[in-house]
Q: What sequence folds into this?
């Protein structure tokens, strides 16, 4: 597979065309941003962790019957993925109260939620990714009701699968963000990444934060946290 022209550079990844019109190549960077790009920095080694971790979890989810954009890992930082049109909704799942959920509802960080929650943000940097309800999303033509129902269904299945996977390595999956895409054939599949950038991950024993909150909140030990997740998932030996 040949790498073609760069199509897009995002905050954490670059996307390239390939000689196969059905595929893109994604290259993961060490650049980190938070608070809608207001805070910028570098997390050394993050690109490798996020690329290899996403690919491990996408392969696992495929085995669980969830279709994903994963095609082939080319090297530590680059992966071939299926070309999709991204549904402009960020899908956020929560098992434990943290982050904006606490701010919005006055919940105490760390509170067990009685059920997993699913919420949507409109993926729009200029507007700061505002929370959106499903009638607004369909009214704006961002997705059909059927697509939203299918996303919700897949998301809850993904949550159960990932919670179990992380539990085995002593990690609590607090919350996370997913993005979905639609293939040229019209099939809805999981896209983007699943990494410490997009998940809150806590050590099951100490409840220590092992994710991007260490960067957002200047807690120190940012690189170490990403490496710890990498190690727990066995990626340093694979
Ligand atoms: N998240 C993300 N990208 C975003 C917003 C949120 O990956 O643009 C992830 C975040 O890492 C966390 C979850 O979604 O795991 C819930 O984030 P929250 O809504 O609490 O927002 P935050 O407090 O991170 O701004």
A:
């Amino acid at each position: 597979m040949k790498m073609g022209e760069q199509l897009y550079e995002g905050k954490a990844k670059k996307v390239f065309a390939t000689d196969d019109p059905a595929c893109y190549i994604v290259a993961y960077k060490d650049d980190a941003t938070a608070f809608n790009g207001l805070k910028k920095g570098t997390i050394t080694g993050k690109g490798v962790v996020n690329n290899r971790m996403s690919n491990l979890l996408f392969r696992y989810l495929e085995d669980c019957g969830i279709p994903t954009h994963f095609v082939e890992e080319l090297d530590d930082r680059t992966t071939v993925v299926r070309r999709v049109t991204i549904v402009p909704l960020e899908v956020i799942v929560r098992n434990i109260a943290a982050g904006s959920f606490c701010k919005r509802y006055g919940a105490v960080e760390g509170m067990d939620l009685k059920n997993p929650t699913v919420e949507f943000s409109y993926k729009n940097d200029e507007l700061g990714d505002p929370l959106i309800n499903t009638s607004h999303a369909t009214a704006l033509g961002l997705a059909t009701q059927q697509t939203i129902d299918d996303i919700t269904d897949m998301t809850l299945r993904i949550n159960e699968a990932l919670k179990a996977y992380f539990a085995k390595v002593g990690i609590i999956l607090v919350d996370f963000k997913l993005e979905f895409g639609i293939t040229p054939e019209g099939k809805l599949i999981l896209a983007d990444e699943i990494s410490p950038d997009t998940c809150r991950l806590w050590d099951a024993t100490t409840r220590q934060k092992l994710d991007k909150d260490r960067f957002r909140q200047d807690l120190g030990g940012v690189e170490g946290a990403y490496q710890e997740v990498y190690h727990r998932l066995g990626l340093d030996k694979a």
Observations:
- Residues 90, 92, 98-101, 129, 175-177, 198-200, 212 surround uridine-5'-diphosphate (CB under 6 Å).
- Residues 145-167 form the longest helix (23 residues).
